[in-house]
Amino acid sequence: MRLFWQHGYEGTSLTMLTSAMGITPTSLYAAFGSKDGLFREAVELYSAPEASPTDRAMGAPTAREAVERMLRGNADAYADPDTPPGCMVVLSGINLAEGHEHVGRYLAGLRRADLDKVRARIRRGVEEGDLPAGADPDVLASFAVTVLHGLSVQARDGAGRERLQAVVDGAMAGWDRLAR
Amino acid sequence: MRLFWQHGYEGTSLTMLTSAMGITPTSLYAAFGSKDGLFREAVELYSAPEASPTDRAMGAPTAREAVERMLRGNADAYADPDTPPGCMVVLSGINLAEGHEHVGRYLAGLRRADLDKVRARIRRGVEEGDLPAGADPDVLASFAVTVLHGLSVQARDGAGRERLQAVVDGAMAGWDRLAR
DNA sequence: CGATTTATGTAGTGTTCGCTACATAATTGC
DNA sequence: GCAATTATGTAGCGAACACTACATAAATCG
Questions:
Q1: Would the pLDDT of A71 be above 90?
Q2: Chain B residues close to A7, C-beta within 8 Å
Q3: Could you give the CA distance from residue B122 to residue B124 in angstroms, rounded to a whole number?
Q4: Average per-residue pLDDT in chain B?
Q5: A126 plus A173 within the same structural domain
Q6: Residues B99 and B28 in one domain
Q7: Does pLDDT of B180 surpass 90?
Q8: Are B74 and B87 in contact (CB under 8 A)?
Q9: Residue A135: domain span
Q10: Using 50, 70 and 90 to split pLDDT, how confident is the model at B155?
Q11: How far is the CA of A102 from the C1' of C26 (A)?
Q12: Which residues in chain A touch residue B112, judged by CB atoms under 8 angstroms apart?
């Protein structure tokens, strides 16, 4: 998972994987079927709901709090020095050679699912009254997710926890202007 | 340039390049020295100051206007259906195999240079009084660039011009809360 | 024109890629 | 304990990778 996270799908070779896992290609293929299969299991491990800051944040009592927790939780994860910087789902399949487009679509689908979750949480906020009726869930969700994805690039460019949290400060200020 | 832009540095093979350019590997190497050399010339063409929305935007009369022009100009470019979606400097070298780290550092340096340009323009705005003295150029520039980079991912995920511009609306609202 | 230089195509180089046939070792089930 | 099944290591598959030696064609220049 960490190799794919750091180097991306194509940037991680079977040699890197087998030596890191301490097994031979035969065992890897017996257990995972293909490089694709291993990658998907790695992504599933990465984005397991019980550990995903995004999924956990959606349970917050208000939509604003859910978005803020999502951004702050992911910002901290992106800047964690014990793991590769940024988000695996955003970074590991951004640019792919011909023949691997399905990997990009798979990751784009996960990003889309996150966007949908955020938008649904925002809609709920409008329904429950903690957001004004005029708030546009589409725009608010796109804004939040755009900042989220930008944080991954910032983290990969070396931004630390404080810097990312300062960006979230700005994003939440923008949220308060948009959500009224 | 378009191939590297679409598929990234490693995702673009010499076969793709030579067939697209209509030349043989020998001619390519005689003209550009290496795949790296061609990639760098492609990036330089992509980010030529006279065509770069970011460089052109920095000439705006106020810092706020400069940032807004940068975001809106790049958003339009990212969503241009005639070119690959998103920013080549952000997307073409995010995830690299071992041995190609220098390509990633090269692109990160360009991103850093853009961040520095934005921060310098913001500092000038504080000096010239169109931004309040308490505005923090570091935070404002990081916020603007984070949104900018997030727009690239949104564009690659299929967001169109209107959607990206709506995100910029939100970002500028956030700017107005931060810059006071 | 003839000689030199420059540019281009042909046909490969060695390396690494994802992946697998085959044989051996470990484990399981009766 | 012995056969059947499962798991693992060895060695190497064809294909694609970035790149280049060599020969030929084009252009330049006296």
A1: yes
A2: 95-98
A3: 5
A4: 95
A5: yes
A6: no
A7: no
A8: yes
A9: 52-178
A10: very high
A11: 38
A12: 157
